[in-house]
Design a protein that fits this description.
The protein is α+β, with helices and mostly antiparallel strands. It has one domain: Deoxyribonuclease I, Chain A. It contains four helices and 13 strands. Strand 4, helix 1 and strand 5 form a beta-alpha-beta unit. The longest helix has 17 residues.
């Protein structure tokens, strides 16, 4: 597997952005996918007429030989167009070509946290630009035929983190949304380390949520209510490991 690796060390919380059209890379018990409620249930289409398949995986680390190759094979096996990755545990930020795939990633200065998004060859052609917000938030713009799509990939702090860290995390998501201000549809996906409960909450949480709502879950629900988002994977039955 060929790899062309470009890395840039970054410090700016507001993000270091790349307009390269060829520059993005989950499965855990606390994964949530959030989509704008202005277009509930919409199928996002790129330049082809096929529906785009998007997923997220908490890989726990790619800082091991062979792990990235295994993720690419799994993406190909289930025929995904985009795969968001949490807990990559790489340093720096940059883009990488993996045969027919394109990976953008965003890390810090030590081998923990970090995340990214992996695109297949077709979707990579629609990638207009991307921006590193932090080692917990990265954002990409996809230019489509009928509408534009923004993807924000996130990895939240654990439940024992301080409240100030949670506030900073949501501020970083706000910065990412600002980067996508001209987009038609915004998808926020990743590992929020949150449980939103198994009962419906307005148009935010559906009947197929997870367990008993916890503090992080309450924060996520409140954020969705304020920003007009829906937690999409609470509206259909999930395997317990995928909730």
């Amino acid at each position: 597997m060929s790899q062309n690796h470009t890395e840039t060390l970054v410090n700016n919380v507001k993000g270091v952005c790349d307009s390269n059209p060829n520059p993005l890379f989950g499965r855990d018990s606390h994964v949530q996918q959030v989509a704008s409620s202005r277009n509930p249930g919409s199928a996002c289409k790129m330049k082809t007429n096929k529906t785009s398949k998007i997923a997220m995986w908490n890989v726990h680390t790619l800082h091991q030989i062979g792990k990235l190759e295994n993720v690419v094979k799994e993406m190909e096996r289930i025929k995904l167009n985009n795969l968001g990755l949490a807990e990559v545990r790489w340093t720096g930020a940059g883009s990488m070509q993996l045969d027919s795939k394109t990976l953008i990633y965003s890390g810090g200065h030590i081998y923990e946290r970090s995340l990214g998004i992996l695109f297949d060859v077709t979707t990579a052609k629609s990638l207009g630009s991307w921006c590193r917000i932090s080692d917990r938030v990265v954002v990409a713009k996809l230019v489509a035929k009928q509408l534009n799509l923004g993807i924000i990939q996130v990895y939240a702090q654990t439940s024992d983190s301080e409240d100030v860290a949670e506030e900073k995390f949501y501020e970083e998501i706000k910065n990412a949304k600002g980067y996508l201000k001209s987009q038609n549809i915004i998808i926020v996906m990743g590992d929020f380390n949150a449980k939103v409960g198994d009962g419906r909450v307005e148009d935010v949480v559906g009947p197929s949520g997870m367990g008993t709502v916890n503090e992080r879950g309450s924060g996520l629900i409140e954020w969705c209510q304020i920003n007009d988002f829906t937690i999409t994977n609470s509206w259909y039955e999930n395997h317990p490991k995928g909730q």
